[in-house]
Write a structure and sequence with these properties.
heterodimer; A: 331 residues; alpha+beta; 8-stranded mixed sheet; 12 strands; B: 270 residues; Rossmann fold; 2 domains
């Protein structure tokens, strides 16, 4: 199988970055996330990134349109959605599955989000199979193969001498053709998929949760949550956003920014009514959205088992333990 | 077409409904911004202040109407606006009332306070397409006579429509009030309209809806023939931003109109 020798990786990345906007996993200021490639920036390929690649399609803040107001007049000026061809190198199978979830949300159900589509349609994704599972990884419980990402354009496997690479989409094939001079025949075999030690038993979970909305277990499960929202910002599938204005400066700008169902203000209506007034309702919303509502609406889990929320939750509210408790109590 | 960017319209007329509610007529240089179905929603914005989802309470040939109660920052700014003010509008959003299901049937509308606003779009549709519907009845209540919305339609226009009756109640009367005094659910039971061949559409404060539904059950109305319209906080209007999510539904797309049968299958979180 063709591949890239480890000693040739930076050469390959430089060639790609000469033609495309290339993003690679890298450590910057103590945080691992997808960063624009530069030759001084060593790709971080030993584990998944702390921040998910969702920010490349759905940035934390994103300008929507400009407006000007003068006395009774209002003028609106649309901003062109950005569309620079980009390549994402090293996306893990769990995060690729999550991008598929975001595709369903932003591109499906009747309305296309033009800002998301512009970036997504112009992105080629090279996924990287995982060769080991972290202690917080449980993707194989959520239907993800840690060694294969069927929705990616290209699939890459790390071996002793390099990275095997195969095309999964037509765009992927074209890409391999384009950079064929940087590839060579490697003798190594595809590595075996790692097994996650952490497990979540999901058989029959949706059906059980459909009967558990009013269950007393939610008060218990939410007790230690401090509604900080960290889980929602780190989650590769969480996509809730707010729309706000920047009212300082010359031309005023409407932008959207990540929001979180963990906050009281998220559902608070003018007039004071709040359908999710306490953390019990908000924690229930987060877990039911991932484990019942998304499967019902889109036919796939809203959780991909990446384990970021488990790793970073300040009160150790572990979604696999939540699933276990939900399974153990009487519906 | 980018669904998040508003079209700019102009407030062409403002009607004072109650001390805290005004109806705004909105038009553009090309006539009405779009043609909604009764019960659909639109995002209305004063870009420098904010944007929120409102039901479209009626429409004319060249304008949309929004009946807006002053409850927060945006609605206060709208109440301060004068005729000629340009505003952003985008939509229409949501499913609207099931017109085909309602056609040929008697229609009973039960509203409380500003909850008559979304019903009004359907009431006026029924009035404009009178031959498509059976008898029409509106039962409406507000806290006081001054708080009654759409007084001209309630007391002048609608009672004159063929086979249409309007029954109005207030929680507390004043020296001039000659009508019924009492809450909507009790008034409904007192009037006791027969459920036979009827579709009931109700909207009002949550507490009113709760007791109206109890009364309707007592009077043998079936959940398939009871329709209501929900309200949730919204930002995008197109099922992406997440906040109007109830169960597997997004109220901006799959709602805001639901039959009681559908509502009973959703988590009780609205």
């Amino acid at each position: 199988m063709k591949g890239i020798k480890k000693s040739q990786l930076s050469n390959f990345l430089q060639q790609v970055s000469a033609k495309y906007s290339l993003y690679v996993p890298a450590q910057v200021d103590g945080v691992t996330r997808f960063q624009k490639y530069s030759s001084e920036r060593e790709p971080f390929l030993t584990a998944n990134t702390q921040l998910s690649p969702k920010e490349l399609f759905f940035p934390q803040t994103e300008q929507l349109y400009c407006y000007e107001t003068h006395k009774q007049e209002v003028k609106v000026e649309e901003l062109a959605a950005s569309s620079e061809p980009q390549v994402l190198f090293g996306v893990r199978p769990c995060d690729m599955q999550a991008i598929g979830v975001l595709d369903d949300v932003f591109l499906g159900k009747g309305y296309e989000d033009v800002y998301y589509r512009a970036k997504r349609a112009n992105t080629l994704i090279i996924a990287l199979a995982c060769s080991q599972a972290e202690a917080t990884c449980f993707c194989d419980s959520m239907g993800v193969d840690p060694a294969f990402a069927p929705q990616a354009d290209l699939m890459m496997y790390e071996t002793e001498d390099g990275y095997l690479i195969e095309a999964l989409s037509d765009q992927g094939k074209d890409f391999l053709q384009e950079f064929s001079s940087a590839l060579e025949e490697l003798r190594s075999e595809k590595p075996q998929a790692p097994a996650c030690e952490l497990k979540a038993e999901t058989d029959g979970l949706v059906e059980k949760l459909q009967k558990m909305f009013e269950h007393s277990v939610w008060a218990e499960l939410s007790r230690k949550c401090i509604n900080c929202g960290t889980c929602t910002y780190l989650c590769p599938t969480c996509h809730c956003f707010d729309i706000e204005s920047k009212t300082r400066g010359g031309k005023e700008v409407k932008f959207r920014c990540w929001d979180s169902c963990m906050y009281k203000e998220y559902t608070l209506m003018a007039g004071g009514h709040n359908p999710r007034p306490t953390k019990k309702e908000r924690v229930r919303q987060r877990f039911l959205h991932k484990l019942q509502y998304m499967p019902e609406r889109y036919g796939k889990w809203g959780c991909v088992g990446c384990g970021r929320c488990i790793d970073k939750c300040p009160v150790n509210l572990d979604i696999t333990k939540v699933i276990r408790e939900l399974r153990e109590v009487e519906a | 077409m980018n669904p998040l960017v508003p079209i700019i319209g102009k407030i062409s007329k403002i009607v004072d409904e109650t001390p805290d509610t005004k109806t705004f007529h909105v038009t553009t240089s090309n006539g009405k911004p779009f043609t909604p179905l009764p019960g659909q929603l639109a995002m209305v914005s004063l870009p420098a202040v904010g944007e929120a989802m409102f039901s479209i309470s009626s429409q004319g040939d060249d304008h949309l109407e929004f009946s807006i109660k002053k409850v927060g920052m945006l609605t206060e700014a709208l109440h301060d606006a004068e005729v000629g003010q340009e505003i952003g509008v985008r939509g229409p959003y949501g499913n609207g009332f099931p017109l085909d299901f309602c056609k040929g049937k008697d229609m009973l509308f039960i509203g409380g306070g500003i909850g008559l606003a979304p019903l009004r779009s359907l009431i006026n549709y029924c009035v404009a397409n009178r031959e498509d519907f059976g008898n029409l009845q509106v039962i409406y209540g507000a806290r006081s006579p001054a708080d009654l919305c759409f007084k001209e339609e309630l007391f002048e226009t609608w009672p004159k429509v063929r086979d249409m009756r309007v029954d109005v109640t207030v929680d507390k009367g004043d020296e001039n009030w000659q009508g019924n005094v009492g809450f909507v659910p009790a008034f409904l039971e007192q009037l006791n309209p027969s459920p036979e061949g009827k579709v009931t559409v109700t909207c009002g404060p949550p507490i009113m809806i709760k007791f109206v539904l109890q009364s309707l059950a007592k009077m043998n109305y079936q959940p398939d023939n009871i329709i209501t319209t929900l309200e949730m906080r919204m930002k995008c209007g197109v099922g992406k931003c997440g906040r109007c999510n109830i169960g597997s539904c997004y109220i901006c797309l799959d709602g805001p109109v639901f039959t009681l049968t559908q509502l009973n299958q959703l988590p009780n979180e609205y």
